[in-house]
Amino acid sequence: MKSVPRKKSARTLPTDGVRTAGAAGIRAASALAPFEQVKHYLKSRLAAGEWTPGTLMPSEAELVQHFGVSRMTVNRALRELQLEGLVDRVQGVGTFAAQLHRVSSSLVIRDIHEEIVSRGHTHHATVHLAREEQAGAQAAQRLGVVAGTRIFHTLIVHYENGVALQCEDRYVNPECAPDYLSVDFTRVTPTHYLLDVAPLWEAHFSVQAGLPTAREAKLLGLKTSDPCLIVARRTSNRGIPITQARLVHPAGHYQIEGVFKP
């Protein structure tokens, strides 16, 4: 991991971090999810120049105490700021305001529920499969484990305003998420849950045009000849596989979102 020049810490937090943004800031932050409140607060202070590039920012423990949220919540907020190129995180040292003279492009892994709700629409999910399996040759290759390894397997269809939007076929490493099958995935998406319990360090993905399998076509209400956009995504943490997902979308219902920062 790259080294980051350390400067004098400017980690002090005001008595009420959200209040410093004024009444409008309070109203905006109160409507956000807990991790978004932490992210909004840190992002607004970075924008105001209160932490100059290279400055050590508040620790996770300080943010947990200040906002009264879980460490997972703070970790998610910092992870998203890192993906946006706004902070640098150095293991065992802390979080630093990023140097802003870099050019970067990033792909953000988004929770489909949050994405649909952000459009003002309604999301619901139907779970068609949730079980423990022994990894066959194909599943083992996809996830990056040895054939015969114990794995979790879910098959879920996500809907936007009642229209099938995504067929999610996912394998999960139980070592990273032992309670995965106990989660009610009609209420919490696998992406949301896994980002909280098994933070990723690396993600590999591919996007291609293709045709659905017979089962995917049936679940999505399509013909097997209907074109789809298919995303294959695998995540890991320090070489340990977390999950592999095949996400199939009816053509025209998917887009890639990038972030460019000068």
Overview of the structural elements:
The chain is of the alpha+beta class and 262 residues long. The chain has 2 domains: 19-104, Orthogonal Bundle (Arc Repressor Mutant, subunit A), CATH 1.10.10.10; 112-253, Chorismate lyase, CATH 3.40.1410. 27% of the residues lie in helices and 30% in strands. It has 8 helices and 10 strands. It has helices at residues 23-30, 34-47, 60-67, 71-83, 112-118, 137-143, 190-197, 214-220, and strands at residues 87-90, 94-97, 104-107, 123-134, 150-160, 163-172, 202-210, 228-237, 240-250, 258-261. Strands 4-5-6-9-8-7 form a 6-stranded antiparallel sheet. It has a two-stranded antiparallel ribbon with strand order 1-2. Strand 1 (87-90) and strand 2 (94-97) form a beta hairpin. Helix 2 crosses helix 4 and helix 3 crosses helix 4. The longest helix has 14 residues, at 34-47. The two termini are 22 Å apart. The model is unreliable at 1-5 and 15-29 (pLDDT under 50).
Summary?
The chain is an alpha+beta fold. Helix content is 27%, strand content 30%. The strands form 3 sheets. It has a 6-stranded antiparallel beta sheet. Strands 1-2 form a two-stranded antiparallel sheet.
Relative helix content: 25-40%
Mean residue pLDDT: 83
Question: SS-based structural class?
Answer: alpha+beta
Distance between the termini: 22 Å
SSE pattern, N- to C-terminal: HHHHEEEHEHEEHEHEEE
Question: How many β strands by DSSP?
Answer: 10
Contiguous uncertain segments of 5+ residues = 1-5, 15-29
Structure annotation, total helices: 8
Number of domains: 2
Q: Which CATH C-level class of the largest domain is it? A: Alpha Beta
The fold-level CATH name of the largest domain is Chorismate lyase
